[in-house]
Structure formats: structure tokens, C-alpha cells
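hey so u asked for the seq, here:
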Amino acid sequence: MTQTLIPDAAPARDGDPWSLDGEGSALRPRRAQRLPRQKPLGEQSIVITGATSGIGLATARRAARAGARVFLIARSEEALRNLCDSLQAEGCRAAYAVADVSERALLEAAAERCVRLFGGIDTWINNAGVTIYGPIRDTTLEDQRRLFETNYWGTVNGSLVAVERMREQPGGGTLINVGSILSDAAIPVQGVYSASKHAVKGFTNALRMELIRERAPVRVSLIKPAAVDTPYKDHARNLTGDPMRNPPPVYSVNVVAEAILHCADHPVREITVGGGGRLLASFHALAPGIAEPLMARLVPALHRDRRNSQRITDDGLFDPTEDDLFESSDYGHVRQVSWLAQARMHPGITAGTLVGAGVALALALIIMLSQRSGPTRLERIGRRMDPRRWHLPPVRLPAFSLPDIDLSGMDLKARGQRLRRHLPDLGAVPGLSGGRSGARRWLERTREAMPVEQMRDQARKAGRFARDHASEGATLVALASLLGVLAVAASQKLPDPDMGRPHRRKGLSRFS
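ran it, C-alpha cells below
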């Protein structure tokens, strides 16, 4: 008999979510710790990197005007000073620190100053980022490393600095990393940027799982914007020689800022902003063999800005630009709402709406199928689909009788020989005499039994059937569209069940 030896287990460490329940028992996870409820936005201290342009600037202004204490981090001291002065002039509470996110020591000093001024850090938003337009082979390793220093290592530095402080403070905190939909589907022209956002997504997800295992009171959210109306393209290093832009559809920067601040006071794991980007990523995931050749040909052309003939040469890859404090750029049509993000931010309302739409659609189908127009519509459909009714009008054939041929007691071969011997007797049958010519005359007589008018009448009936059931066809198309929306919504990942419970903000009811 084989005996399994179980080694002595080390005593469980304090705070380790995995412990031994009894001597020699299997590893069992302790019950997950419920995270503290997030503070209302107006009571939080929020740190924002990349705060002087685009998404960071819009988020800082929106949070400050909601009553939050905002601490701003960027590379341009002049832009930070001007932004703080403008916010303080409106009665908001704001402070800043000049820092490059690639330097962890500078972020450590900025975090200490925020704690000293505001008493702690409730939410840390890693937003700083740059991009490079051009083929990967034409991009120097120095430029690629610099992009990763900002996009990836800046996110790593900010996350670790924030988590170390949130773990120790009462109530924990929230870490929000701004990624990109390009972390789900890479594209040409921005290959290096896509690679950095893949790294940000992997780091964020792994860090979240480690914090869950350690039962740390820190929530981690990932924001994945699609094309956004920001000066992002104006600060990019452009190696193509042509003016560039984000391909449509382009979403307003305020849509992303709203999603970020929603995560600051609601336990949401991940939000994709922009249904166009979600469709692109889903298409790439479902059919990469089709998507990649199409994207290889179409994406470079869609990035080219044909309305602007002036190529921007200044970029913010290594040094800050001089045109900060701009939230948006010179795009034409910009979408002011992302229904996909709204559905993710308010899953209760979305589920209720979908259930209501499904019930309404079912009622519409019942009403249409039971509506009377002579006999009920359902009965008409059933009658037309009954195979027993699929027959032509009776055909009048000439009366004749075949010779009496006894085939009983014969096998198949003998029956064939007997029939061949009696085939000449079929020439005496009226309408079939004359061999092939007689058979031809019989077929012509059969066609005459159903005149052209009857054929036209059958065609008119088919057209009437199609018109009567056009509404059913439209209903089926609507149902298929609804199923498509449900499939896209289902592709969004559900929030972590241990992320806490929703709460009500003063004067405004929110769902998470």
C-alpha cells in the first residue's frame, strides 16, 4: 500500500491569505477581507501624473471642481504653477510637484509632499504617456527605451509608490492606471506604443492579483481609452513625415475623465472607453487572420491627417513641450458619450434596460404573431410551412391501363426481364404510343394542365406572403442586433466580487 508523505508546513504568516486548517490538511484560502468603502470624491486626496495636458488635465479640473484635493505631477513647472493658480482662483484645493515619472525618487518625494499637505493619498492616477508614430524598424532603441521609461516604468514607479502608502493608511486607497485599447489589439504606425500598453495591462492585472492575495486594502482599476480628442498626437515623435491623427471614431476627453473619476469612488476593475475601439479589439481577437491584413493596409492611411498639411516637429518624448494646458486638439466631429463606458459604469441600469428591452421585444413578437388579418398571422405562417400543402393543382391525365403483368414470386432480375419482354405492349396505351414522341406529347399535355395564369397567381401569392411577413423579418433583424449588443457587453469583464459595495454620493445616486 502506497503512503503519501506530507511535509511539515511552515506556520502561516500574519496577513498571508493562505493558511493550513488543521494538521496535515490541504491548503485552504482564508475568507477574503472586505475592502473598506471608498470615500466620496469630494472628500478625497487625488494624485494625478501627466496633469498638464489632455486626459490628466481634464481629470484634474473635474476632480478639483467636485471638491477633491488634487496633487498634480508633470515635468513643466510653469504649466503646473499656472494650473494650480487657476484652480485656486476658483476656490479649489490644489498643489503640485515637478517630477519625471521615470525617476522613482522624484515620485517618492512628491508622494511625501502630498501626504504632508493633504494628510494622505486616497487615489493615485497614473496617466503620463507619450507615443511615437512610425515603423518599429525606423525607431531607434534610444527612443523606444525612452517611451517605455515614461509609459511602462512611469506606471510601475507610480503604482509601487502609491501602494506602499495606501497599504499602511486607514481606509486603504485606489490605484487607477490609464492604459489603452491598443493593449488588446496592437496596430502598425504605433507599434512601440502598443507594446508599452500591453506591458501596462499585464503589470496592472498581476499587481491586482497580488494585492488580493495579500488582502491589501487597495483597489486597482484599469482604464482603456480608444481614440480620444487630446493633444497626444501633437506631443508625439513623428517619424512618418506626414501630419498624423487618431483614426475615427474619436471620443471627447471628458468621457475618459468621467470614467476615471467613477473608478475613484466606485469599485470597478476595468473600463473600456469607446465602442469603436472595443469592436476593433473583438474583431482582432475573433479573426486575427482576417483582421491583421486589413489593419496593415488601412490603419496607416486612417492615421494620416489630410486636412493638415503642416507637420509638427516639436515633441515631448524627452523634454516637456511649451503648449501645455490644452485638454483637446483640432479634431472635427467628436463623440461626447461612450455608451459602452456608461454601461460599464452603471451595470444595474444597463441590466434593467436590457431586460426591459427583451420583454418589450417578446411582447411585440406575441402581438404581431397573434394579430388577426382574417385568420391569425401565426396560423397563416403554419399553414404555409406545412409540407402537406406543398402540392400543385391536380393534373388531368388521359385514362389508360397498363397490361396485366404478373411479377409475384420473382426476384429483382427476373422482374426486370419480364418487364422488358412486355415493353412493346405499352405502345397500345393512349397518349404513350409512338415511343419517345408519345412521351413528349404526354409531358406537353401535363404542362397544359397548369396554365400560365395559375403560375402568375402562385407568384402573386408568394409576393403577398413576403409583404405580410416583412414585420416579422424586421423583428428578427432587431433581435439579432440586440444579441450582438449583448455579446459586446458580455465581453467586458465583470467587477471583482471582493471590491466592496456601492455607496451613494451626496445628491447623486450612482451604481457600480
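Residues 1-29, 429-435, 492-512 have pLDDT under 50 and may be disordered. The radius of gyration is 36 Å.
lmk if thats what u needed
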